[in-house]
Amino acid sequence: MSAPKIKVLCIDDSALIRDLMSEIINSEPDMEVVGTAPDPLVARDLIKRTNPDVLTLDVEMPRMDGLDFLERLMRLRPMPVLMVSSLTQAGSEITLRALELGAVDFISKPQMGIRSGMLEYSSMIADKLRAAARSRPRTARRKDTPPPAPIKAPLISSEKLIIIGASTGGTEAIRTVLEPLPANSPAILITQHMPGGFTRSFAERLDRLCRITVKEAEEGERILPGHAYIAPGDTHLKLGRSGANYVARLDNGPPVNRHRPSVDVLFHSAAQQAGRNAIGVILTGMGKDGAAGLLEMRQAGAHTLAQSEASCVVYGMPREAVALGGAMEIVDIDQMAGQIVHHVAASGRAQRV
User: What's the CATH number of domain 6-134, 3.30.70.1520, 3.40.5.10, 3.20.20.100, 3.40.50.2300?
Assistant: First the structure.
């Protein structure tokens, strides 16, 4: 007997987007649209009647905006939500807030040629819906929750580097790792699967929350302790060398594992350039990007960690890395920062002996 289809409810005030999403989703053999709604008030009744597996949700709608609805939904009836967002500076900040509130992932509406653009995204939309249907809904951290206390450790090694890769669910996972790190942490390079136009807002949001400095990586800049560098959307980030210094290298080469930026590209460069001086971390995400690269880092002498299944939104990339033998440790996300700091401190003590 065939598996039941993934039931999708689409909420968008644009009739064109509702029609296009229905066309894209209903063309897939394993999913179907069970209803569409022009706003969240209509959607509330449809959710009760259709019991969907996944919602797609617009941000700007009449009567109740998407963020207000998402916040109530995740408090009262948590379920997988895929945001449909405009690719603008304001839209990117709202989308990041939606991910903070518990949305699994997002789709960017094309700026021009909406029909052709959306149909071009059809395979990506289907993949994201499948990942969302398998995901663990996550409730948002309360606004009045105090920031995590800084982890204290004598992080004295400026040679150490922390290399992080993530995809679906990664924006909040990365925040959970970075927020408690002390200001004197080793330098961090991050690839998060994200389109152009979103990574600058993502870096700025993290910079406001963290003790370390977080920024979008720039070509040729020196990699410094106490800083985290995020791969710009649609651009590969690599670790490079200039004399005795580590530097950021940006590359617009073809996608790897269907992604640009690709985690494997970053991990491969870290294995080559940093070897045992690196700590590799693979976080939540669908697919296998980063699995081969993490194994390469381990073989080059790096210490490697993977996020645990129980704490992942989507246990795809970490599962592939563990299966391949790339992960030396499996760690819950809220223990990851402490484990990284513990390893850096232990390395520093070993160097002094």
Answer: 3.40.50.2300
Q: What letters, b where the CB count within 10 A reaches 16 and e where it falls short, cover 304-322? A: bbbbbeebbbbbbbbbbbb
* Per-residue tokens: 298: 């381990």
| pLDDT value at 353 more than 50 | no
Residue environment code for 14-25, b if the CB has 16+ CB neighbours within 10 A, otherwise e: beebbebbbebb
Residue type, 171: T
Fold match between domain 6-134 and domain 161-352: yes
259 is catalytic: no
- Which one of the listed residues 167, 262, 308, 347 is annotated catalytic? 167
Q: How many CB atoms lie within 10 A of CB 147?
A: 11
CA dihedral 158, 164, 169, 173 (to 10 degrees): -30
Take residue 333 and report the two structure tokens written for it: 């996300």
The 10 Å CB-count burial string (b at 16+, else e) for 190-214 is: bbbbbeebbbbbbbebbbeebbbeb
Give me the catalytic one of 227, 289, 303, 311.
289
Q: Average pLDDT in the 26-51 region? A: 95
Compute the residue count for the chain.
353
Q: How far is CA 279 from CA 223, 257, 353, in A?
A: 15, 22, 21
Torsion angle defined by CA atoms of residues 320, 178, 146 and 83, in that order, rounded to the nearest 10 degrees: -50
**Residue 127: active-site member:** no
* Both tokens assigned to 11: 């909420």
Class of domain 161-352: alpha beta
Catalytic residue among 185, 193, 259, 264: 193
Q: Label residue 345 by pLDDT band (50, 70, 90).
A: confident
CB 109 within 8 A of CB 195: no
- pLDDT reported for residue 152: 72
Q: Please state the domain extents for the chain.
A: 6-134, 161-352
**Is residue 251 flagged as an active site residue?**
no
